[in-house]
Amino acid sequence: MSVAQQIKKVTAKAITSLYNIELPQESILINATKPEFEGDYTIVLFAFVKQLKKNPEQLGNELGEYLVKENSELFTSFNVIKGFLNLTVSNNYWLHFLSTNYNNINFGIKEKTNAKVMVEYSSPNTNKPLHLGHLRNNFLGWSIAEILKANGNAIVKTCVVNDRGIHICKSMIAWKLFGNNETPETTHTKGDHLVGGFYVKFNDAYKKEIEEIINTGKTKEQAEKEAPIMLAAQQMLVDWEAGKPDVIELWKQMNNWVYKGFDETYKKIGSNFDKIYYESNTYLLGKNLVKQGLDKNVFYKKDDGSVWIDLTKDGLDEKVVQRKDGTSVYITQDIGLAEQRQKEYNAQQSIYVVGDEQNYHFKVLKLICKKLGLPSADGIYHLSYGMVELPTGKMKSREGTVVDADDLVAEMINIAKHKTEELGKVKDFAEDELTELYNTIGLGALKFFLLRVDPKKKMIFNPEESIDFHGFTGPFIQYTHARIKSILRKAMVNGQWSIENNSPLTIQHSLLPLEKQLAVQLEIFPAIIEEAATEHDPSKLAIYIFNIAQTFNSFYSQHSISNAENEEKKLLRLQLATLTAQILKAGMSLLGINVPERM
RNA sequence: GGUCCGGUAGCUCAGUUGAAUAGAGCAACAGCCUUCUAAGCUGUGGGUCAUUGGUUUGAAUCCAAUCCGGAUCACCA
Q1: What pLDDT digit, counting tens, does each position of A270-287 carry?
Q2: What is the ipTM of this complex?
Q3: Hey, what domains does chain A have and what are their CATH numbers?
């Protein structure tokens, strides 16, 4: 049990025995004591002065005295300032904490439970390569999956590939018209980029045709509908649905080019999935549910044959769930897929990592699933994240104003290479070790940059300013880890720490402020993992490991580990350093970031 | 227009289940490498927490109104 929990527990007990009042532990508010005051943890007294009818000062003193007296193994002293009771936790507690946990690789990781969670992320369209927005999505999805795993859940990572529809047909038509039978091999281009290029070409040609038609005196709306290239794309979609062989063949071929390209990118960024759904296989799902919904009177049919649900009583609108021609719309497919996944995996929770532009959609999805009585309904959770925008506004792949994922990753790795060469600390590395190091640092910088902010918030990325390698960044934490590992390597002699008296710590004299601060921060790692999981927010973890690294570096600059004042101090600091490195590594791995042994 | 989200230092962001003098990083300036990795450390300057009113012992945090920005409300996906 963490100190914070223990303090709550004994405080509740103390209040009961002192004042004969039962207080739930959750109502006790405790904080880390601010550095300018003496103490480690602070009980905020205002919360229950009313109930106890005491002034805060008196309550604090009575409570403090009782707590220290009854829990002498936990507390050594207290002080009361205004409405705050500051408690100093005994050195023995911290020393014991360190000596029992410093070597525990699973510190903060929970035992597996029966809970199963599905995490859907990435979910690309196959008409264009991945861009910066996809990277945020992938990193978030990956990280939240790891965080939930660390909290004991079994995880199924899934991806829904949008491999059909009008966008793909646009690329196909453009390839037929302007492609001259180009392939990734003949052009030496990554397949997803090649196909994405034709998507842009389609839109260029479409714009041109619209202009020409407008010049003949027609309105913009008419022109948009009549443009031959658009009609051709629409016809191609009809042909695809009808299964016309040459269309299907072209579709398969172009999609395969794209998948090969995606695979390369996913491999590079360290992303993967347990199960991939292809929309071409699932887009008809949900049709049977429309029938069910009609039978249950959840849906109703309009005169033209279209099927609707009325959500006005829930504060939303009327939504169509099946077109008048009998084909299903996007949301119906999602309902069908939700049911399908439930049947296949029976997960308690299904997390959809999807941009916040679809907030409304997921509200509707969950509501409809509930009204249909689907068992999957309650577990639907939309992990909504903000868009990544450029200083000039939104990225638009149609207009080619996107930050390409492959380009950005390559650039980051390249910057890592230059900086590493400049510093010249790893001249003895072999070629493949260097390549791995550049990847680790470059991707670390990028992933940390995207994960350190609250997922809910949109973020602006300025391509003119490169992502930093100093301060609140991935490389800073990687560097701190490498630095600690270097010390630990040097402290080893024949596989053991070179300490004269390797007996358990018994020092009674006080921990130095930075030793204490580091120990206090390290101790809350399990609570941070839990918080990141319940809030679905990896940034909590990113901020935490940054704070740890910061504190360690301050500690490092002021106190020597290998030349500590005495052997007991040396042992204590080696334990602190070991656990710090361990937590930096584990924390970063929950963000999908590796840490090097040297850099 | 309805609904939802956001506005905190020059920039990027923490802090928002109410709690002590609102914190980091970057940028700027001044220091620190004969001692465990300077991708580091220490210090200085920098704030009308969008505005106004309210609730409270206490408000960046809760409530109301207003201003600004964004998303969404398609028989698109």
Answers
A1: 999 999 999 999 998 988
A2: 0.96
A3: 3-89 (3.30.1360.70), 165-270 (no CATH), 287-327 (no CATH), 419-590 (1.10.730.10)
